């Protein structure tokens, strides 16, 4: 290895900017250095590659310090016309080859990735031309005969077919949700209508997701142009919503929405229609570039970090060097999709829309897009007050610790349940309320405004029912004619659901269909990659970490931050990854004194070499002996004036925020899937117990009877924890290998 020329990787951002691009650049730089490669930042997209000179700069470890939490892209982006020409690409190839760079990671939209693949395909002929012109030697030509590339999709629209989310989409949704939540309060005060226009020229994801998460009334998206007469349908939906008690109306329009004749539907037109038809004061809000701005969300930080590290793996050891790949996250894993296919599938959607094939356009967006669209239709259409005769009564009970999104799930369950012909009964104060029979039927309008509200309107209690409670609970279910039960909550809720189901032979009242959905900031539940509330807690932590770091920026300081999570290290690891921690301490790994000593030595050397800030994130139960306080003191004892130490326990604020867009969407999907399962069971007349979970982007159903096989009971967490694969990524971002020069 020592005599070989180092492998050199170029990284650039191109096309529209997106929050999270910096996290990806940082990850590419640090993963490359960790793997022994040299890395060059190419400034202003493809323009820097064409200009050469200072446009291509070698980056070191510290060049990407402190950029994880900044929006935009610190290496610049540009729409470069010249790269569309062969002459431009010839200049680019020459500039790369002169520096020995033959691997590229590009973070951009489908245009940027198309250009990248053209460049890759042309590379041998470009090198041939450079050689023929006498600009490079035969040896250079031969030693860089291939350009190896990896593409990451930076696009706030979330328009890449085949992956869950593109870099920037989650943050854009945060910005839109901030606008909706702000508008909702003023709209409700004046009984006004609002039209919100969001980005998405060909892709309605942001509009649809915002409409669901924001509890809006109507949505217009490019993939599903409304049929003639949509204006009447929209106004009717708004009118009925008001009649049912809504104080405001909110319509979301994607900027690329059209009618079935292809005429654009502008937000101004929607406003005019509402004013003319309903005579209502209506305002338009267009957040515009605000959607691209601000600090990236926790997801856009950890996911982009993961993707950047994977992109480095791809260009260093491609499984198929001649097939360029786009790398994205799907479910709990990373997928590598052939770039040409990813781009052509993505470009096909606007073509399908233009051809009037809306069904195929919707299908191309993936099953969860269709699912969300249908659920929005049900959620937003105000249902009649009168339940059909013989309607079943479904009880909703919350249990365990508080998780942001519990209200969203309750609201969705009530509205979807009513829309599907059930009577929905809110059980107050958890299983203790069930035991005492404290419950009331909830109507469509009773849950208005719950979508974005933190806390738990129905009330909840932490404890698991004990055997003595079972008789009373069974009586209460019978007395209140509860035909099925939806349990929303964390570990204790699952334990309670399991207990009821296990005791069904002794208590026939428990033979009803029973479904539990995961809501816990700890993310310690079986059968699901994420639980409702986790994303919100993570965002709270990342915001706290940003502020903590800022507080130490004027001095040299070490921080030890403690997160919740009980015995599950998810929050600690992901907060560390998204917050840029150097160390995380997890119960899954334990903490040993020798490891702590090694950390102290590393820290001392690191501060001596110029470090100004150190961050460790410790899970609350990482170790019984080595507490946050203890680690703080240990670091302090070794500081010798080089730095000071602060410890910070983030505490219950992690449970107290309003749910993030991702948690609202997850809660809605979970509630819908739970009602599907309960509806099917009720229709078949059979009981049964299940718990639901998100796996590989789908919500699956698992029998409660087998739950214990999937959990580590002692540590109250699932046996299989997918996110531990990210542990080495954090280490690669944190530990700079010894410098060679
Ligand atoms: P996005 O990447 O966000 O889709 P654009 O389509 O504007 O944005 O592309 C960004 C840049 O990528 C362009 O300015 C150009 O430099 C390059 N690019 C786009 N399409 C091509 C192409 N077909 N051939 C070569 N380069 C391209």
- Strand proportion, as a percent range, falls in 15-25%
CATH architecture of the largest domain: 3-Layer(aba) Sandwich
Count the DSSP helices.
23
CATH topology of the largest domain: Rossmann fold
What count of structural domains? 4
Describe the 3D structure.
There is one protein chain. The protein is α/β, with parallel strands linked by helices and 741 residues long. It has four domains: 8-166 and 296-349, Rossmann fold (3-Layer(aba) Sandwich), CATH 3.40.50.450; 169-292, Rossmann fold (3-Layer(aba) Sandwich), CATH 3.40.50.460; 383-523 and 699-711, Rossmann fold (3-Layer(aba) Sandwich), CATH 3.40.50.450; 534-657, Phosphofructokinase domain (Rossmann fold, 3-Layer(aba) Sandwich). Helix content is 42%, strand content 17%. It has 23 helices and 24 strands. It has a seven-stranded mixed beta sheet, sandwiched between helices. The chain is globular, with a radius of gyration of 27 Å. The relative contact order is 0.10. Adenosine-5'-diphosphate binds at residues 14-16, 46, 79-80, 83-84, 108-112, 114-115, 118.
Architecture blueprint of SSEs:
Elements: E1 8-13, H1 21-34, E2 38-42, H2 46-51, E3 56-59, H3 86-98, E4 103-108, H4 110-132, H5 138-143, E5 148-153, H6 169-190, E6 193-198, H7 205-213, E7 218-220, H8 230-243, E8 249-254, H9 267-278, E9 282-285, H10 298-316, E10 325-330, E11 333-338, H11 339-354, H12 358-364, H13 367-380, E12 393-399, H14 406-419, E13 423-427, H15 430-436, E14 439-442, H16 467-479, E15 484-489, H17 491-502, E16 513-518, H18 534-551, E17 557-563, H19 570-579, E18 583-585, H20 593-608, E19 613-619, H21 628-639, E20 644-649, H22 661-684, E21 688-695, E22 698-703, E23 711-712, E24 717-718, H23 727-734
Parallel strand pairs: 1-2, 1-4, 4-5, 5-10, 6-8, 6-9, 7-8, 12-13, 12-15, 15-16, 16-21, 17-19, 17-20, 18-19
Antiparallel strand pairs: 2-3, 10-11, 13-14, 21-22, 23-24
Helix pairs in contact: 1-10, 1-23, 3-4, 4-11, 6-7, 7-13, 7-22, 8-9, 10-19, 11-12, 13-14, 14-22, 15-16, 18-19, 20-21
């Amino acid at each position: 290895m020592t005599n070989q020329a180092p492998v050199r990787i170029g990284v650039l951002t191109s096309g529209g900017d997106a929050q999270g691009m910096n996290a990806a650049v940082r990850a590419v730089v640090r993963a490359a250095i960790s793997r022994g490669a040299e890395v060059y930042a190419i400034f202003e997209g493809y323009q820097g590659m064409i200009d050469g000179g200072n446009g291509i700069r070698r980056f070191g470890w510290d060049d990407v310090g402190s950029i994880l939490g900044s929006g935009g892209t610190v290496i610049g982006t540009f729409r470069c016309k010249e790269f569309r020409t062969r002459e431009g690409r010839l200049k680019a190839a020459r500039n790369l080859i002169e520096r020995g760079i033959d691997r590229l990671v590009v973070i951009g939209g489908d245009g940027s990735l198309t250009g990248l693949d053209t460049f890759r395909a042309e590379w041998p002929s470009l090198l041939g031309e450079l050689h023929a012109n006498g600009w490079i030697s035969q040896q250079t030509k031969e030693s860089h005969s291939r350009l190896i590339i990896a593409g990451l999709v930076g696009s706030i629209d979330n328009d890449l077919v085949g992956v869950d989310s593109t870099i920037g989409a989650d943050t854009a949704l945060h910005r839109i949700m901030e606008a909706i939540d702000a508008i909702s309060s003023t709209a409700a005060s004046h009984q006004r209508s609002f039209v919100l226009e969001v980005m998405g020229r060909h892709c309605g994801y942001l509009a649809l997701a915002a409409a669901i998460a924001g509890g809006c009334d109507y949505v217009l998206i490019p993939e599903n142009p409304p049929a003639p007469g949509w204006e009447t349908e929209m106004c009717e939906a708004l009118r009925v919503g008001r009649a049912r008690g809504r104080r405001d109306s909110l319509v979301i329009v994607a900027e690329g929405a059209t009618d079935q004749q292809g005429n654009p539907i502008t937000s101004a037109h929607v406003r005019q229609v509402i004013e003319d038809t309903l005579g209502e004061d209506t305002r338009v809000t267009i957040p515009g570039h605000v959607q691209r701005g601000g600090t990236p969300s926790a997801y856009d930080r950890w996911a982009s970090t993961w993707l950047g590290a994977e992109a480095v793996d791809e260009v260093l050891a491609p499984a198929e060097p001649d097939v360029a790949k786009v790398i994205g996250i799907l479910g709990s894993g990373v997928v590598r999709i052939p770039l040409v296919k990813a781009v052509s599938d993505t470009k096909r959607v606007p073509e399908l829309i233009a051809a009037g094939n809306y069904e195929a356009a919707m299908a191309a967006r993936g099953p969860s897009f269709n699912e969300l669209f249908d659920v929005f239709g049900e959620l937003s259409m105000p249902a009649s007050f009168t339940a059909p005769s013989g309607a079943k009564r479904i009880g909703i009970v919350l249990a365990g610790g508080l998780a942001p999104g519990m209200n969203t799930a309750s609201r969705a369950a009530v509205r979807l349940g009513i829309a599907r012909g059930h009577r929905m009964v809110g059980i107050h104060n958890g299983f203790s309320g069930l035991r005492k029979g404290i419950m009331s039927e909830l109507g469509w309008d009773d849950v208005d405004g719950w979508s974005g509200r933190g806390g738990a309107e129905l009330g909840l209690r932490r404890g698991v029912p004990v055997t003595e409670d079972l008789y009373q609970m069974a009586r209460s279910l019978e007395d209140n004619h509860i035909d099925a039960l939806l349990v929303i909550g964390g570990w204790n809720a699952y334990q309670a659901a399991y207990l009821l189901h296990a005791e069904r032979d002794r208590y026939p009242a428990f033979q009803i269909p029973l479904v539990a959905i995961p809501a816990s900031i700890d993310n310690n539940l079986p059968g699901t990659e994420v639980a409702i509330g986790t994303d919100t807690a993570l965002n709270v932590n990342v915001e706290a970490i940003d502020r903590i770091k800022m507080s130490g920026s004027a001095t040299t300081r070490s921080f030890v931050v403690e997160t919740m999570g009980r015995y599950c290290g998810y929050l600690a690891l992901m907060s560390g990854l998204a917050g840029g921690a150097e160390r995380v301490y997890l119960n899954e790994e334990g903490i040993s004194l020798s490891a702590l000593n090694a950390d102290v030595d590393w820290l001392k050397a690191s501060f001596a070499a110029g470090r100004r800030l150190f961050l460790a994130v410790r899970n609350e139960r990482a170790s019984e002996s080595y507490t946050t306080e203890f680690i703080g003191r240990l670091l302090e004892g070794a500081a010798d004036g080089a730095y000071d130490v602060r410890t910070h326990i983030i505490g219950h604020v992690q449970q107290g925020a309003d749910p993030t867009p991702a948690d609202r969407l997850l809660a809605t999907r979970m509630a819908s899937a739970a009602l599907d399962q309960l509806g099917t069971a009720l229709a078949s007349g059979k009981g049964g117990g299940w718990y639901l979970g998100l796996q590989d982007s789908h919500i699956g159903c698992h029998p409660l009877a087998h739950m214990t096989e999937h959990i580590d009971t002692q540590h109250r967490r699932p046996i299989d924890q997918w996110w531990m694969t990210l542990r080495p990524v954090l280490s690669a971002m944190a530990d700079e290998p010894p410098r060679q020069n």
